[in-house]
Amino acid sequence: MIKFKKDMSAGMRTSASLSDYVPFLRDYHSSSSSDLGGGMEIPGQYGGYQRPRPERHARIMCFQDRVRVFTSLRKPVAVGVVGDDGRAFRFIVKCGEDLRQDQRIQQVFAIANR
What we know:
Blueprint: E1 5-7, E2 13-17, H1 23-26, E3 60-63, E4 66-70, E5 77-83, E6 88-93, H2 100-113
Antiparallel strand pairs: 1-2, 2-4, 3-5, 4-5, 5-6
């Protein structure tokens, strides 16, 4: 059984350990990766408005141990990824969902905001 700790500063979210959801990601580190080309790129670095430069894109170093669980119907989880540039990237993961529609809506919002 997973025990969640209420996080009052985050509103309607709870905190949990990444290993409660995906144990093998807790121990992932790019030095232990057998990926060719220096590891996996962090998703979302292609803008579509200019030619991509993959050599400048951040790659996954490790995953943050704590995740945020949203208390909505599907209980999406916010996961932190640490890049080889030292920055933390946040992603929301929804189990059993096709996220392509969500991605398209986000792209429409980004174009409308420009």
